[in-house]
């Protein structure tokens, strides 16, 4: 029987803005099985990134249930959510989010140290080698290209062997060739660690590499366009 690793039940998200209350998500219900790879697609403003943030506990749902690995995210405080992410999740953003004053190796190793890993730097070296950056471990973000910085971000996200990897437009700031390389590495890391992947992308071709494609429109799942990418 397939294990459900992440479950959303009737999730709504509304945020305040200068123009008043804005409804972002409008009753999302979705189950994600262990080992799934899901491509979240849809037009700008459809709620893709907001949904990903709720899945990662980086945004709180206005109402509904968010259950990840048996933990009710709606009942956890910020510190508990941060500890959970360190132990079980990896997150890759469009804009890298590397610490400018740290080397590539330190950027990957520091979250592992915070999670209590005694072999943090050895694990970091292994993951940097896996993304082809063994010779750049001592370089700072300012000394690396955008593609190299995103590879460091991938290594950082994968180093703890997370149960769930969330990726929000990881190729959005890269040219097509570099972006394709990053996606190859992302799916390789997923396969190597057996990680469940949830990928936000505007690209149908990238989403089609996942085993499920979920399309959002106006904050709801468009069931007419939700299908297995392989079909």
Q: Can you tell me about this structure?
A:
This protein has one domain (4-225): P-loop containing nucleotide triphosphate hydrolases (Rossmann fold). Helices cover 33% and strands 27% of the residues. It contains 7 helices and 10 strands. The chain has helices at 48-55, 78-88, 104-114, 120-130, 146-158, 176-193, 204-207, and strands at 4-17, 20-33, 37-41, 63-68, 71-72, 89-92, 164-168, 196-200, 212-217, 220-221. Strand 1 and strand 2 form a beta hairpin. Helix 3 packs parallel to helix 5 (146-158) and helix 4 (120-130) packs across helix 5. It starts with a strand and ends in a 10-residue tail after the last strand.
Please outline the helices and strands.
Layout: E1 4-17, E2 20-33, E3 37-41, H1 48-55, E4 63-68, E5 71-72, H2 78-88, E6 89-92, H3 104-114, H4 120-130, H5 146-158, E7 164-168, H6 176-193, E8 196-200, H7 204-207, E9 212-217, E10 220-221
Parallel strand pairs: 3-8, 3-9, 6-7, 7-8
Antiparallel strand pairs: 1-2, 1-4, 4-5, 9-10
Helix pairs in contact: 3-4, 3-5, 4-5, 5-6
């Amino acid at each position: 029987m397939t294990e459900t690793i992440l479950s959303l039940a009737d999730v709504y998200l509304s945020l305040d803005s200068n123009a008043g209350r804005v409804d972002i998500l409008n009753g999302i219900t979705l189950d994600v099985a262990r080992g799934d790879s899901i491509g979240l697609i849809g037009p700008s403003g459809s709620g893709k990134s907001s949904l990903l943030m709720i899945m990662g506990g980086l945004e709180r749902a206005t109402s509904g249930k968010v259950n990840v690995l048996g933990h009710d995210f709606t009942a956890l405080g910020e510190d508990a959510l941060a500890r959970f992410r360190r132990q079980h999740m990896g997150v890759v953003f469009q804009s890298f989010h590397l610490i400018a004053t740290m080397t590539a190796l330190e950027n990957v190793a520091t979250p592992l140290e915070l999670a209590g890993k005694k072999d943090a730097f050895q694990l970091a070296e292994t993951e940097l080698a896996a993304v082809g950056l063994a010779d750049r471990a001592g370089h700072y973000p300012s000394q690396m290209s955008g593609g190299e910085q995103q590879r460091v971000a991938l290594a950082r996200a994968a180093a703890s062997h997370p149960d769930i990897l969330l990726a929000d437009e990881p190729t959005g700031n890269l040219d097509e060739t570099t972006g394709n390389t990053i996606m190859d590495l992302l799916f390789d890391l997923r396969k190597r660690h057996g990680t469940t992947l949830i990928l936000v992308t505007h690209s149908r071709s990238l989403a089609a590499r996942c085993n499920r494609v979920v399309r959002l429109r106006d904050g709801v799942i468009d069931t007419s366009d939700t299908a297995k990418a392989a079909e």
